[in-house]
Amino acid sequence: MENNPNEHSLPTPGRRAWPEPVFVAFTLIVSYLFCEFILFGGLGASVALFIAVFYAVALCYLARGGLRLSFGFVVTFSTVAFLCLCFLLYNNLELRFLNVLGLLIFIPLSLLYASGMNEYPFFSIGTIWDHMKTFLLFPFANIGKSAAVLAENGHGSKKVAGVLKILLGILIISPVALIIVLLLMRSDAAFDEIMTNSFRYITGRWLTYFFKILIAVVLTFPLFSLLYSLLHKQFDVRISKYGIGRRVRAVDTMFVNSALWVICMIYVLYISTQIGYFFSAFRNMLPDGYTSMAAYARRGFFELVAVVAINLCLIVFAMLFSKRSGDDMQHASKVTIFALSLLTVMLIITAISKMVMYIQNYGLTPLRVYTSWFMLALLVVFVLLIVRMFVPRFRFLRSSAVAVILLYLMLNFANTDALIPQYNIAKYRQDIRTNSSATLDVDMFDQLSDSMVPQAAALRNDAAYGKEVNKMLETRSARLKSQDWQNYTVAGALAERVIDGK
User: Fold this and answer.
1) DSSP 63-94
2) Closest by alpha carbon to 117, among 1, 239, 8, 241?
3) With contact defined as beta carbons under 8 Å apart, do 112 and 231 qualify?
4) pLDDT higher than threshold 50 for residue 244
5) What is the pLDDT of residue 335?
6) Helix (H/G/I), strand (E/B), else coil: 329
7) Does residue 105 contact residue 75 with C-beta atoms inside 8 Å?
8) Separation between Cα atoms, residue 216 and residue 470, nearest integer Å
9) Which residues pair with 8 in a beta bridge?
10) Cβ atoms within 10 A of the Cβ of 479, count?
11) Which of 249, 308, 319, 366 sits at 20 to 30 Å (Cα–Cα) from 501?
């Protein structure tokens, strides 16, 4: 566990002020809210509300042992807060999926840093292990503690623990019981009629609430186990004492450098013989042998992306497994990695230029936006890697992680589903002045989130696409009006107002 001199601890409240059975009850409430707001709800305003309640309970419980305001906690907690704001503002489906993955990464890490149980500093290579043990080990290390805490604290708590165990047993046996009931229904008509009438009687809201409560009870066990493990530090699995970092750096440096220099020479030869092919994108021109802008941009782009991915894997291998002089890489390895990184930066810039040329000629799509962002993130990572080769004390992994997080948040808050139709409509109106046969892919707008509505509404009176756009907006309006509050977003509310003409 790393002790940071710049780390501050919040004052610790009296340990008896909030008995642990109270937090077991709070954890059960949080688990039920997860079912109500997220699992059976939506991914809009309910996400921000649920995360706020979750952190209120989790941090209050961890405060019993003192909270550590480390750099890692500030960054991870701030990232969670911004991701929650994205759920409240926008409803981009692709980014929502990635944001959920982000929450699964940063919430466990933020709680780990808040408790001070991290074994490695923020965003070092060991952060992967810190996250794994927090996300996968701690929820099961003290899986029975919630029931044990209740059983150890009075007669009433024992009854609650008994109820929890009964509900858990019912939930576990439910699939088997359902299969048996269905088989018996098929075997006898009278039993089939009785059970069909019973199912019809109990279906609806009550059955839904019953399942929510059962799932909440099951989720309470691992959730409280996670918080209990972080507070009481009873399951601190540490691997740093085994010196794994030193053990894996066993590959001979000469072997690594010679292999990487072969790759570098191939890239130098390839670039020198294909200058006209690779760098035509900088002049927005097609090289010889190409008649289609799309064919040139697509083929050249994905070739370069594959090369960049291979280079990244080779550099990561060299940095992790090659022998070192003390704690630092040998000078020859730095030169080799620098050369390969510099060549990779050239390839990334070329790939980005191809995508820019493609966008200028064919407009924006979500895939083109996300691919461009990915290449930009790779460019930043390789530039920081080059800096690391010159500045030994530069924290490459931490700086790269923070840079990629900032770029990802910028991608979220850029509201790309509004930028795409805005750019394409402006391009269409510009093209139509010089080319009467210019077209616009309006069907693609319907695949975007509600953020596209204010931009698409500008085409309501367009002679070519007005009828299609109005029909699309009517369908979107019906969907918005049928949504529950859990799916509320600012983008959706604005879209509804624009469609209604308010």
Assistant:
1) GGG--EE-HHHHHHHHHHHHHHHHHHH---HH
2) 1
3) no
4) no
5) 81
6) strand
7) no
8) 43
9) 69
10) 12
11) 366
